[in-house]
Design goal:
Elements: H1 19-46, H2 63-71, E1 76-81, H3 89-103, E2 107-112, H4 118-128, E3 136-141, E4 144-149, E5 154-157, E6 168-172, H5 174-187, E7 191-197, E8 210-211, E9 217-218, H6 226-233, E10 237-243, E11 256-260, H7 268-279, E12 283-287, H8 295-303, E13 306-308, E14 312-318, E15 324-327, E16 330-334, E17 348-351, E18 358-360, E19 371-379, E20 383-386, E21 410-417, E22 430-435, H9 451-463, H10 486-516
Parallel strand pairs: 1-2, 7-10, 7-11, 11-12, 12-22
Antiparallel strand pairs: 1-3, 3-4, 5-6, 8-9, 13-18, 14-15, 14-20, 16-17, 16-19, 19-21, 21-22
Length: about 525
């Protein structure tokens, strides 16, 4: 048998390991990982975002505070003199952290515990001439300084000592106090706002203390617009009384005046002063009481194209399946086409009390062509302007086409004479805001949401040419409470005593049945 030759494949030589190539590859991967880590850290440090998910946005600065911080040119230095035992110390630290984040490097903060760092505290106390033992902040800007005490940043509930209750924080108002102090420092001189008196307007000063029948001193009645006054004066504005009967002309230092709910008409002399003030680029805020008859003031408004109608806004609201109630309190909606209401666009606000409609007159050859009129707020759909508003006949208090006024119903209007259409251009001009309701800003009509105060604040700042301060003001955080009526209490009792025990019982029976099967 012939020998068979078996062919075997040629043996392959082992592949050479390129150690240099592997090393370079590893180095490149490590370098890329380090580079990506550096980029992520840089972006996280320089461009990070924060979100406040708390119920009442406790840790988020208001729109007004943020806008003001963006307008600051220099640096603000804040020195914190708080000891560790202060109950609002942590809230203050969290608040200042938000200020630093929003200011983008315009705020420097130094924390000093006076009980531990006595030498540094004494040095700064002497520098800023601090004489209080209370915990406080010292704000320093361009050589000027201002203190904000802990008592100004919180309302403390003392509790009932008889039952062993400890004092607790009722409301933290740190942002209002700090932002107000910053505005004072940056602007320096306060802006004067003339509050016109002499026509039975609500007083801005509290009544003098009096002696009770028991011969004990009692505080006088508070001003009906005390909340509004405090709200406005927190923005570096001082409201001072202005009686046009007692002055030959409106003082030069007053650039803006407020006319709030006059019950009597102005005299011819007063109207001449108002017209002269308007012609000299004056700024006027007018809040009218529709029940008062002020024909001369109404004629002045008509000259600039604002006609306040002799009607009352009302609506029919369903209160049950077949029940309808007629309401005269107006729900207004702000229109976002103006700098005043840009940040309140489509926000609803209650205008309690009587409200009239306002017509914006078309261009008239007898009126200067450089007057710009713009609606700021309108009544919600469903309201009408009732002209027979004094009638007691329900049949007459219904919308009648051709007699009553239908939507849109303006309730606030702005007027500017000589301004620029470009918001970035600051031009000297006369400005006016007219509102056909004067009671919505009084203390007994204000709501917790304070949209009315934000609107008035925006109007005042627009009149003062401080557009950078127009925004939503900080709100005071409140304790969350629940009010349960008898039906709600009965349902809650069934939920706790019956339904909640039934759930684990049903699960247990189900498991037992499956195992038994």
């Amino acid at each position: 048998m012939a020998d068979e030759t078996i062919a075997t494949p040629a043996s392959r030589s082992p592949r050479k390991i390129h150690r240099l190539r592997i090393g370079v590859n590893v180095l490149v991967q490590v370098a890329l990982i380090l580079f990506l880590a550096a980029i992520v850290n840089y972006l996280g440090f320089e461009h990070y975002r924060r979100w406040d998910l708390s119920r009442d946005k406790k840790y988020e600065l208001s729109d007004k505070s943020k806008r003001f911080l963006h307008s600051i040119k220099g640096k603000v230095r804040i020195t914190v003199f708080f000891d560790g035992a202060n109950p609002i110390g942590q809230d203050v630290q969290n608040l200042l952290t938000e200020y630093q984040y929003a200011s983008k490097g315009k705020i420097d903060i130094e924390n000093i515990d006076p009980t531990r760092n006595l030498s540094r505290a004494k040095e700064l106390f002497d520098k800023y001439k601090v004489v209080s033992d209370e915990s406080l902040l010292v704000l320093d800007y361009d050589g000027r300084n201002k203190t904000v005490k802990a008592s100004e940043m919180a309302e403390i509930d003392p509790g009932n000592a008889m039952f062993g209750e400890q004092p607790k924080i009722a409301a933290f108002k740190g942002e209002q106090a700090v932002t107000s102090a910053m505005i004072d420092l940056v602007e320096g001189k306060k802006n004067a706002l003339g509050y016109v008196l002499g026509h039975k307007e609500p007083p801005i000063a509290d009544a003098a203390p009096r002696i009770s029948p028991m011969l004990t001193p009692e505080a006088g009645a508070r001003s009906p617009i005390s909340v509004l006054k405090t709200f406005i004066e927190n923005e570096n504005i001082t409201m001072q009384e202005l009686n046009l009967f007692e002055v030959p002309a409106i003082p030069e230092e007053i650039k803006t005046i407020v006319i709030l709910g006059p019950q009597y008409d102005f005299s011819d002399r007063e109207m001449k002063m108002l017209r002269d003030f308007w012609d000299k680029q004056g700024r006027i805020l007018v809040l009218l009481d529709p029940t008062a008859k002020t024909p001369k003031l109404a004629a002045f408004l008509a000259e600039v194209g604002v006609k306040v109608n002799d009607d009352r806004l009302m609506a029919n609201v369903k209160t049950g399946i077949q029940e309808v109630a007629r309401v005269r309190d107006v729900i207004g909606r702000f229109i976002g086409g103006s700098p005043i209401t840009k940040r309140l666009a489509d926000v609803r606000a209650p205008f309690f009390g009587g409200t009239s409609s306002i017509d914006v007159a078309p261009q008239d050859p007898s009126r200067p062509s450089n007057i710009k009129l713009q609606p700021l707020a309108q009544a919600e759909k469903g309201y009408w302007g009732e002209t027979d508003y004094n009638s007691t006949d329900d049949a007459l208090l219904q919308f009648t086409p051709g007699r009553d006024r239908d939507t849109p119903l303006n309730i606030a209007v702005s007027v500017e004479k000589g301004g620029s259409d470009d918001e970035r251009v600051q031009a000297n001009s006369s400005r006016m805001v007219v509102v056909s309701n004067s009671t919505f800003v009084q203390d007994n009509a204000l709501t917790q949401d304070q949209q009315g105060l934000d609107f008035i604040s925006g109007s005042v700042n627009w009149l003062l040419s401080r557009e950078q301060l127009i925004g939503i003001a900080p709100k005071v955080p409140t304790t969350l409470t629940f009010s349960l009526d008898e039906n709600a209490m009965r349902n809650l009792r069934w939920l706790i005593l019956v339904l909640m025990p039934l759930v684990p019982a049903a699960v247990g029976v189900t498991v037992w049945w499956r195992r038994r099967a």
